[in-house]
Amino acid sequence: MQRLIKLLLPLFILNSCHQTVEKDTKLIQEGNIIHEEIRELEFVEIRQLGNSYNQRFDLSGICFGPENSIWAVADKSHNTAIYQLDWAKDETTWEIISQIDLEISDSRIDFEALDYADSIFYISNEVDQSFFTYNLQSKKLEKVTPPYLEADIHPNNWKMNTGLEGLAIDSKNNIAYLGKEREPRMIYTFDRSKNKIIEAYDFPHTHSNDIGDLKYENNFLYVLERNGNYITKIDLETQTVVDKLSYRSVCSAPEGKLFDAKYGMAEALLLSENEIWIGLDNNADSVTDFAKEKYKLKGNKPAIIRFKRPLGF
To answer: Which of 50, 62, 100, 252 has the most CB atoms less than 10 A away?
Structure first.
């Protein structure tokens, strides 16, 4: 009998493991996604900032503005502006073609995210966990500090560089989604009409522990998981992961990375109908030999990667 048990036990364990894997692969909609099930984004091209801006530019947020113009922010204290970008004709770079100076006197500035809706830009400031609004029509700049303490949230206890890394606007419902980067990673739902944080949660069963950026579309929140090289789609009604895409094959391929950094560098997410753009904040690090050879990158300028957006994502 004991011999029979010994013979059958490995088969039982193998069968149990097999059933677990099958269960996980069927639970993608609940967030239990194993690595093999995650689709890779289809690469289109990668470009770096050209010679239009001579200071250090650590790209940290990107969005569409009026008439599908493209705008960005950077996270150094001298970058107190919103910058308009353009795809250069040389087919290798993008350039800064104009900027809106926000005339902020406070030197404690760390812009980490950018969004736009109804003639208003929204810019997160990680230094004090606030965000700014800039109205293009009135030229009025306002600072918004959510009432964290009323929701028993204590930003003063957060470690440096673990604060608001993502900001996404649902203008129809006057909601701002605020993404706390890590330690712990959190999403805060801020109802602007009530001036109240109405939800605070993390989303489980993911392969990363951080947030690089957020974007909102049609009651879905798209999360840039920087350290995992993923874009995760969250159903806001159920607060569960319903889909996930990877850009690992470009940024962290087995044969080499674009920049030689310990952590992920993706900090800016842009969604259009047919494309997904990811902006890299390379912290002025130089590109790797792999990036030079495969993608013809050079120097230490930030990069934007274009991917095709799968139907239904």
So the answer is: 62
DSSP letter for each residue of 250-313: HHEETTEESB--SS--EEEEEE-SSEEEEEE--TTPPBPHHHHHHH---TT--EEEEEEPPTT-
Could you tell me the pTM of the whole model? 0.87
What is the separation, in whole angstroms, between the first and last Cα of the chain?
Answer: 54
H/E segment holding residue 26: helix 2-26
Summarize pLDDT for 299-311 with one digit per residue, the tens: 999 999 999 999 9
User: How buried is residue 120: exposed, middle or buried, by Cβ count under 10 Å (0-12/13-18/19+)?
Assistant: middle
Q: Following DSSP, what letter does each residue of 204-224 receive, concatenated?
A: -S-S-S---EEEEETTEEEEE
Match 């522990």 to its residue by tokens.
209
Distance (Å, whole) CA 45 – CA 87: 12
CB under 8 Å, gap of 24 or more: what pairs does 150-154 form?
150/196, 150/197, 151/188, 151/196, 151/197, 151/200, 153/188, 153/197, 153/200
Tokens, residue 232: 């995760």
User: According to the model, what pLDDT value does residue 205 have?
Assistant: 62
Beta-sheet pairing, 39-40 with 240-246: parallel
Instruction: Give the gyration radius of the chain's Cα atoms.
Output: 21
d(CA 124, CA 166): 7
What gap in Å lies between CA 184 and CA 196, rounded to an integer? 21
Which segments of 78-174 are extended strands (E)?
A: 81-87, 93-101, 111-117, 120-125, 130-135, 141-144, 164-170
Q: What is the pLDDT of residues 237-293, one digit of tens each?
A: 999 999 999 999 999 998 999 998 877 899 999 999 999 999 999 999 999 999 999
Q: Which domains does the chain have, with CATH numbers?
A: 44-308 (2.120.10.30)
